[in-house]
Design goal:
alpha/beta, TIM Barrel, eight-stranded parallel sheet, five-stranded parallel sheet, transferase, amino-acid biosynthesis, EC 2.1.1.14, Met_Synth_C/arc, 5-methyltetrahydropteroyltriglutamate--homocysteine S-methyltransferase
């Protein structure tokens, strides 16, 4: 009896980031659409070939998209917001790029779709915008073409599509006046606006059911036997109306024509949705057991309640860890499940392998981790080994946890009001001061110098001279633009986490371990291999140099401990809490050194502060405890008049503002341009007491914002935030933009700020 093997998805960037480079060349007009498609389809084919070579039973089709799967599905459904009216002249591919970037050839620049984190990962998805009169116009021709290409491999196929319920859950209604009308005052503790918004979204079920039915009919005609329907929201604490939606949808979509629908959940166990999930009238269910708590054995509960005719796909291989699997232990699970399920047992990755690097074979692996790692390609081999029973113990895998680490957290003694008064007197900044988030364009010259240095073709001294030249240019441009608080531009940094990982003990940096963050943006998460310590200052010399170039304040730029942890691959046998506290101590020492070097403002970025939040409410208090404790500890060495900034972006902060407030940063800068003013309203409603800098333009879009665009954000902010606690800044760092775009946008930002400042002072 053979066990079927499959994966939920494979990295789509290519082993050498081929898709990224092809996209960017296409956007820049350097290659034609036909040339881009040829390069993209070569990556697609390589992904399929990897699955064939590994010996998987089913080849996964439909997971390969150009930018984001939710975005692709929205365009296939005809969900095009009205501001993209010119998208009708574009094909599917260019429509996706237009919605994601706000720019397309021969089209007017408009605001791009909102982008936010995909559950508790560092991947970002594009949020579909529905209006109350939404009409769906389905076109899945590109998916059908993909299936025809896949058939040339002559392998059994499994097609992936986003689930109807999850798609609606992850979308938002853009005209919400009707939902607000349903709010009423009571003390029941219920968010009536949220309920009304859910009801407004769920009304689209009836319009989408015929579209999904027609899609499944066409897939059956094309010879497809299995369809993986991604319904990740099944692992969340779902409100009753969403649970009811699952029952309603899948009773309408159930099949009896041989097409087998497999519902895929991941990132957590099914929790209280267990009975709901196993009873859905589909052929099978996928569960992710890699997130089960030690000793929980939730998968056994699923098997016990699973109807006797259903397939169960066990997600045994982690799609979010780079550590090799303990196949001996996992084989015990397989054998137990096999006794109950027989040939109804499938084996898979817990989630898509999108979240890990592509292939370990290109790396030079240090001895201390050799044999302990597995990237996406190696995980395919692990799956096949489990299914075949070709199991051997990996003696290099540690079975014991490292010695427990703990830390008595410290925090600043003075309250914000006293600190802010002292800082205002010392810094002497104008009303609504202007600044940027930290990074400036990583130019071709910077990349060339870094590449030559890494290859040994440029000496340390020559590299330092090259970086100082770029820092000097960044300072000069900021002074000419008239910004109030400057940054050194981070020319010497490849990435806000990788840079610090390279200077702290306890990390290993891969060479080709790239992972997609969004669109063509890839990051190379460091791998934590041992205890983390700081042996020397990491940023002081660069900030000191920048300070010699200007009489204005230059911020010190650090990455916070929670973000370093969440954007790294944590160790296999150390709790996240312990690792974060180790990082916090390292950053605390750096804050102290910067302060001693005369740096007056220090920014500790926590872009991923919310990202690691457990998906279940019952598990969140523990995370917030050590996350807040870590941030307060690393800023505790700051004196009363040293101003601590932090930055957060592209997350839903509505449910964690008390924790953000507890961080007690003097100034927080946040993304607001893509998500509108809703976030500022939340900060106002919940009474955020400290200073805040709302992002006035979206740096991830190449479109040039106008003064009026930016003014809208600040005018909205002034309705809720006192002017003396308001800053002006872009949404995020500027490393992905070019200097022409950057200077144009920042000139508009400074002009707008001066206009508002003059009006406030006159009043």
């Amino acid at each position: 009896m053979s066990i079927k093997t499959h994966i939920l998805g494979y990295p789509r960037i290519g082993a050498k980031r081929e898709l990224k480079f092809a996209e960017e060349r296409y956007w820049n007009g350097e290659i034609t659409q036909a040339e881009f498609l040829a390069k993209a389809q070569a990556v697609e084919a390589a992904n399929w070939q990897a699955q064939v070579d590994a010996g998987l039973s089913l080849m996964t089709v439909g997971d390969f998209v150009f930018y984001d799967s939710i975005l692709t599905h929205a365009v296939r459904l005809g969900v095009i917001p009205t501001r993209f009216v010119e998208a009708t002249r574009l094909n599917h591919m260019d429509q996706q790029f237009y919605l994601a970037r706000g720019r397309a050839p021969e089209c007017t620049d408009v605001a791009a779709l909102e982008m936010t984190k995909w559950f508790d990962t560092n991947y970002h998805y594009l949020v579909p915008e529905l209006n109350s009169t939404q009409i769906f116009k389905a076109d899945f021709s590109d998916l059908f073409a993909q299936i025809e290409r896949a058939k040339t491999f002559k392998q059994p196929l499994k097609v992936v599509v986003p689930g109807l319920v999850s798609f609606l859950y992850l979308s938002r209604i853009v005209d919400t006046d009707n939902t607000k009308a349903e709010q009423h005052a009571c003390e029941c503790g219920t968010d009536h606006i949220k309920i009304a918004a859910d009801q407004a979204t769920l009304k689209f079920i009836d319009a989408l059911i015929p579209i999904y039915t027609a899609l499944f009919d066409e897939l059956k005609i094309r010879g497809v036997e299995y369809v993986q329907i991604d319904e990740p929201v099944l692992v969340l604490d779902l409100a009753p109306e969403w649970q009811a939606a699952f029952e309603h949808v899948y009773h309408l979509l159930q099949r009896n024509d041989g097409l087998k629908l497999i519902i895929a959940s991941y990132f957590e166990t099914l929790g209280t949705n267990l009975n709901l999930a196993v009873q859905l009238p589909v052929a099978g269910l996928h569960i992710d057991i890699t997130h089960e708590k030690q000793g929980e054995f939730f998968w056994k509960k699923v098997i016990d309640q699973l109807p006797a005719d259903k397939i169960l796909s066990l997600g045994l291989i982690s799609g979010r860890s780079v550590w090799a699997s303990d196949l001996v232990y996992l084989n015990l699970i397989v054998q137990t499940a096999k006794k109950s399920l027989g040939d109804r047992l499938w084996l898979s990755s817990g989630c898509s392998l999108l979240h890990v690097p592509v292939d370990l074979r290109s790396e030079t692996i240090p001895a201390e981790v050799n044999g302990k790692l597995a990237f996406a390609r190696q995980k395919l081999n692990e799956l096949v080994a489990l299914a075949s029973g070709n199991i051997y113990p990996n003696e290099k895998l540690s079975k014991t946890a490292d010695k427990t680490f703990d830390l008595v957290g410290q925090e600043r003694a003075e309250p914000f009001e006293d600190r802010f008064k002292a800082q205002q007197q010392k810094l002497n900044l104008p009303l609504i001061p202007t600044t940027t988030i930290g990074s400036f364009p990583q130019t071709a010259e910077i990349r060339a110098a870094r590449s030559a240095w890494n290859n040994g073709d440029l000496t340390n001294d020559a590299y330092e001279i090259a970086m100082k030249k770029e820092i000097a240019y960044a300072i000069q441009q900021q002074e000419q633009l008239g910004l109030d608080v400057l940054v050194h531009g981070e020319a010497e940094r490849t990435d806000m986490v990788e840079y610090f990982a390279g200077l702290l003990d306890g990390f290993w940096l891969s060479r080709f371990g790239w992972v997609q963050s969004y669109g063509s943006r890839c990051v190379r998460p460091p791998i934590i291999v041992s205890d983390i310590t700081r042996s020397k200052a990491m940023t002081v010399k660069w900030i000191q140099y920048a300070n010699t170039l200007s009489n204005k304040i230059v911020k010190g730029m650090l990455t916070g401990p929670v973000t370093i942890l969440n954007w790294s691959f944590p160790p296999a046998h150390r709790s996240r809490r312990e690792v974060c506290l180790q990082l916090a101590e390292a950053i605390r020492l750096e804050v102290s050194d910067l302060q001693n070097a005369g740096v007056e403002i220090i920014q500790i970025d926590e872009a991923a502060f919310r990202e690691g939040l457990p998906l279940r409410k019952a598990d969140q208090a523990e995370y917030w405890d050590w996350a807040v404790k870590s941030f307060k500890h690393c800023s505790s060495s700051a004196q009363i008049d040293t101003q601590i900034h932090t930055h957060m972006c592209y997350s839903d902060f509505k449910d964690c503002l008390p924790q953000i407030t507890a961080m007690d940063a003097d100034v927080i800068t946040i993304e607001t341009s893509r998500s509108g003013l809703q976030l500022l309203e939340v900060f106002h409603e919940q009474g955020y007491p400290n200073a805040i800098g709302p992002g006035v333009y979206d740096i991830h879009s190449p479109r040039t914002p106008t003064v009026d665009n930016m003014r809208t954000v600040i005018d909205g902010a002034l309705k809720t935030i006192p002017a003396e606690r308001l800053w002006v800044n872009p949404d995020c760092g500027l490393k992905t933009r070019n200097w022409t775009e950057t200077k144009t946008a920042l000139a508009a930002l400074v002009k707008m700020a001066k206009q508002v400042r003059a009006e406030l002072e006159a009043a």
